[in-house]
Specification:
5-stranded mixed β-sheet, 4-stranded antiparallel β-sheet, 9 strands, globular
């Protein structure tokens, strides 16, 4: 990795410093698993709902499914956005994010062990200050793990279908330097922005990098990946603490 | 009012006892006013967003507008419900409730004093255990009052357009006896269900009563109204405390 | 009740005077029951359609269902309104009204006696001069009763599932005084507006009262309720005459 | 024309006999022009609404526009059909018919004489027994003519933009023989079905012929056209009587 | 037929001259039948997709179904039009055309011989210079015939359900004279426009004629029909050549 | 990069071999720029439409905009998919892809040089055999460049807003080995799948990598990136040849 300068990011954090992360569990009276994921001022409520039927195209195959939906409260942001239910359709951004969350969680779930159950993860952004999709994946994993623990406790699952924790973090190039976990102000002025979904053992589940201004280089990309490894290790530690608590 | 027996309601509360009410203010980093209204296990996040333009049909009239939107997170309830944004339309129930909230708040707002501003109240149910619309109105008033205080502090409003507090509570007939502030279990088994929107001075802003089973009598209706007066007085006290805090 | 002054309402009617009501039956060649309900210049065509299957969630329970849909022709009103089918969705107002009609008619129907049949009441406003929802409920009951009579005549029903007639009327405060059965001009300038759904025996099925300007008092509300009792008695008499005719 | 046999049509009418036609005018309290067109048991309520603005693409061109919308009440038919407003979209059939009505009426309107006004014709089928589109055009012309008469009476139009009456009728091949003005039973069993929109002077405005079973010949088509000429002459006479009445 | 003058049409073609027609087959790697129909600069890609289930209302009847869908690429035209998928609904014009294509192809298909199969014809306009619906029908027939040949080759069909070829062409009155196969420039300035769907043996399947300006006469209409017979004979020859090739 | 074995890919191509690529230009009579991009059996028709107005939020800023829409014909694929226009909404996949295409093309366009023009790229998949989004970006660039050349030729643009060519290619891990430009069969059985959008000078514009089965490593990711560099160099050469042709 190239040398990280102690530059003055808008947030005042060190270049490789994640925001204060809190993963509050059991925040829903009803959901089989739940986690309120806070990455600084980004707050995402994640619930896991267990259903005993899988989508039609999977019936009878003995395998389960994990899927996700994403939403944002209208005034989660500085400027109020229209309510998607009132507009009558979800934006492309919403659909892109919820597809990403679903893929990330499925990547660490053994569907044969899960059996013909569907677990639906709802990620609703109560407050948004950048990085909502990464908070949703990180908190969504905790909600999923709690729902699976519940299924094991009531005897509905014999074995644990989760292979290992998965977490996500954003990185970006800000005035040419790689920084970790961008908040909204940083994200708006970054030259490049990448989201990484990594497993506890360091495997890459998903990479999405976009040059907002000039294209970036392979070296820069590897710097971002190194930051992401550091960040997700910290997030996995927080997930483990939350699940142990 | 007929004599209220200390019957054993499912909730164990006295017939005229409101659930524990908490009105937490300043819960949103961005909204001009916000309140998380908790009526027992019913939690509604209310935000007030100020816009400097009114709907098209009001332009140039010098008067303001207050409107509301209502939503419920998919797993706010015991059984997950479909996300309205995914289904592509709001249910009739949602539309009915958000129209009610808007009317209730407009009833205590002097639109000429507000001037050509629109305040949009978003009421999002994070957890639902009955009475979400009454919690939304009660918390929505607090969010509205905070937004107006903010407008006065920044000099955008000379006078206070709010005439008096407004609050709402549900009442019902449970095994023939009038009870106050029904939770979900009580509501599901009630014979009749009524929602009252009352002002601090006891004026009736809105009444909605429905016989779920047999029709009810005028005497029974007056019992419910008396309970509602008691309940909304307590809610108004909580609103004042929250706004003073 | 407070003393009703012989004030000059816009309509010129006495304060407690209902518009001329005509309930014309058998107006549809096809529907199992039909009624064209005319409250003055408000004309609502009500048809009852019998279906031998209930909604999915009721199947196999041995109970029936009554539901309603409401619509208004684009030029039923003074100013043409957009066609809901062309706009691609029903307004909140439409949904609110059709839910109300359905609840009102279900309140007087014994669903076990009806058995696994669904009766769908379509209420289409051909001309609107205020009070369309109350005309729809009053005429919808007649259409429903005719459809049930037809089912009994063809032997599909052994017993009568209708418990008693139900009718609806609006009342309001106009310049401070309670008046019965508001037409559009009166409704537009009323301080308060309430719709009452009452049974022949005087039971309250539904109450919806809204303060359009200042909140109203319990005494005023009781005045409106007394007017509603008088008005619905007259409507029930008209229903009985129509069904006897 | 080939020789018309006195065959026994399902309706019992002579092959060249139109159903009883009634064109009732001034049936709407509000519309600038209105006509309830009855072709036997087919009843279509036609209203004409004048708007003082034309569609955006026509603004400033000094020319007017006539357009039409079509709808059918859910229980206008023997089997109830879903309400288009509830389904959230108009069927292809509805759109096809309303486009046809609009073209037919525009064909006899001089848009320069009309000036920058739009007249919107709403055709709502209260009861359907075949031939709803032809009744809609025939009645829609009367509503349009009444609206134009109203505009002339109030001085909003100096000259008459209507060039001549237009009417429409269906014809078909039933068991190989040409018949005029099919009702629903006849239409369902016809081999071919054609709708003709003709002017008072016999000009062809629109022809739509469809072979439901085997293709038909030019000779057969000319037989249908001859019947249509006879039928529309009778309809034009009825229009003139209605407008004179 | 009246005498056809060698007038100078905008296209420079003789009055009874069809554009250069090319029917390219096997243009899709996947579809059971496919044809790229080119009428001059109008290019329509037609594919036939075989499904082994019929619509619900036909199940168990032993009969098949042929249906069509129509679409136009946004920049198929000189001015880009909005993408229907992005707008969220199909225009009335699209629905009208796809219903016409379906009727035309069903008219030459024996549904009992087809058996319980559905063949879906997709007609997508890659480039539009007038006459897209007639090119779609003409090319759609070729795609359908190829799909049926494929079904016979794999043994899924014992007999040929196609009764005879069907083709379509437009005609119009241009400065008072009948012309064949209008391109977009001619269509825009025509006084009348008619589409004819005729079988190889000259039977009329569908006729749609519209007076764009003044009504036209029976004699004019017969002139158009005569042109259509000439044109569709040429198209049928092209279809046969394409299917033989 | 790890050593690439000459494994037997399903397509029989070498691991680092791109499919036969053809970029056919000027395929649309109307569009300002057009390119039919063929990557083997994947055929995407790309058109560029110039509009002289930018989206509302950009007006008056002196900067231009490039956006993209994506669609797939129903029978572009082996199994027919529902038409998005008929279903009434675009899938999440469609929206994700069209957002990607737009970002990729904007990354190489200087919006200040473009000035207040919008160029809309429509990418319609005529036939799909994997890699449709990469073909769309690669062909979309050619259509965009041709539209800009046209604008320069007619004097609407003084300078060239395009900074350099951009192209896209997919890579994947197939049985553990990195392969370039996956077709549909390969994509369906790949362990990981990544799409790279790279500039002619090798800059990274967009990276999207997804583990379909097990997570992949940084080393594997770098292998894919190296393949992508090779592949996009070849695509850029094809773009330059097409534009020179």
């Amino acid at each position: 990795m190239t040398d990280i300068q102690p530059i003055a990011r808008p947030s005042g954090r060190a270049a490789d410093q994640v925001r204060e992360v809190r993963l509050e569990t059991h925040v829903s009276k009803y959901a089989e698993g739940s986690c309120l994921a806070k990455f600084g001022d980004t707050h995402v409520l994640c619930t896991a709902s267990v259903e005993d039927r899988v989508p039609g195209w999977m019936k009878g195959g003995g395998r389960g499914w994990v899927t996700a939906e994403y939403g944002m409260l209208p005034r989660a942001t500085d400027q109020r956005t229209d309510r998607e239910a009132a507009r009558g359709k979800q934006t492309g951004r919403t659909q892109e994010i919820q597809r990403l969350i679903g893929r990330a969680l499925r990547a660490v779930t053994d569907m044969a062990t899960l059996g013909e159950l569907q677990i639906r993860i709802d990620c609703d952004v109560l407050q948004a200050d950048g990085g909502t999709r990464t908070a949703a994946i990180t908190g969504g994993y905790v909600a999923l793990a709690l729902a699976i623990r519940h299924l094991r406790e009531i005897g509905a699952l014999k074995a644990d279908p989760l292979k290992e924790p998965v977490a996500a973090i954003s990185c970006g190039l800000w005035r040419g330097l790689p920084v970790l976990d961008l908040d909204y102000a940083e994200d708006s002025s970054a030259q490049a922005d990448a989201n990484f979904v990594l497993t506890a053992s360091g495997g890459i589940v998903e990479v999405q990098g976009t040059a907002e201004q000039d294209p970036f280089s392979q070296v820069q990309f590897l710097d971002l990946l190194a930051l992401a490894h550091k960040g997700t290790q910290e997030l996995v530690a927080a997930q483990r603490a939350a699940l142990a608590g």
